[in-house]
Amino acid sequence: MIHECRRWGIVLATFLLSVLLYVDRVCISAAKESVARDLELSETEMGWVFSAFALGYALLQAPSGMLADRLGARRVLSLIVALWSLFTGLTAAAGSLATMLVVRFLFGAGEAGAFPAIARAVYSWIPMRERGLVQGVNFSGSRIGAAAALPLVSLMIAELGWRLSFVALMAIGMGWALLWLFYFRDEPADAPWLKPAERELILATRQQPRPPANAPLSLRRAVLRSTTVWALCGQYFSSNFMFFFGLTWFFPQLKQRYGLTGIEASLFAAAPMIAGALGNWISGWWVDRLYKNGDWRRSRRLPAMTGFLLATGGVLGSAHAATPLSSSLWFSLCLLGSDMTLPPSWSTCVDIGGRHAGAVSGAMNMAGNIGSFVTSLAFPYLLAWTGSPLPFFYVAAALNLAAIVSWLSIEPAVSLEVD
Description:
The protein has helices spanning about 5-30, 30-40, 45-60, 60-70, 75-90, 95-110, 115-125, 130-160, 160-185, 195-205, 220-225, 225-245, 250-260, 260-290, 295-320, 325-340, 340-355, 355-385, 390-405. The chain is mostly helical.
């Protein structure tokens, strides 16, 4: 039984970290109005604040993942959670645009290693037959964290102010890092609190390390030679372009557009995040169901293309919504569809990459986070140039439609040729 397995304490810890990851990430959106007022920042300058995180997060993914492989998840997760918590707290000390940009970039760089290090912990501790459930638990934590952050942080800001709120979040992160350092061990064999029978089960049923490749995979060569990799990167750019808008600009534009209080806007903005979690669950089930029926290509293409189609309709509906409720419902459809693209995207990386799946997924995820960087700037600049939020939503819809076309070029059954 799950409740009798002590390894599920580690799963609970990584789930809570995934929640905290997105609480800390989204809190700048909830604090946007207060930060902009106190630091005298314009809409476009706040766009740079949002994008500084995305840039640091994108650039440091590969190095952080390599560090987790080399040093283990115990030390690396403890270190990076402490570092990003420190920069969360230092956000409160920022007194200008320049210092805010530096702190948020370093915050993003710190967070970049979280999911690679969690994946390394899952590899060591979780039997293969439980790995899908564990990954679903962890990714649902990120969406739940994003949904919870908006109303909770809005309440904190109302009571404590935005600076003390960031300091409080720093303290929570530091506490998690200390508990992880003292409780977790990189290998089950080194955990004195683990029962012998469970230790033997984990070691006997987890995936064993594969033999080293004859030649390392060149990301540059893989991207340049593979149409599928190019298409994966392009469609993931579109997916993150929309989702990161939900993490950053959807809340403040909703508040301003409909004249809402912070608490009211946070509740409307939280609903799409829950819809995103639902989209992951639906798509993951659909991918497996189609694959079990023997249709490998459609098991990847159909859920992703359906997701992007739903995202297109949702973003256009939200753009023209007359009330905050209808805008929230339409955008919920958008993020449900956008998150439906994640299981087939990551599954295809494994399909074509095989033993190089980490490198392939790293290339795709970096492209996706460049999309996050772009959306942070595209919304305020398009708003400033045109005087309307509609052009941004039209660009997002066009990217979703382009992503549907991209999936016609993705062949999950054709593996990469590596010299």
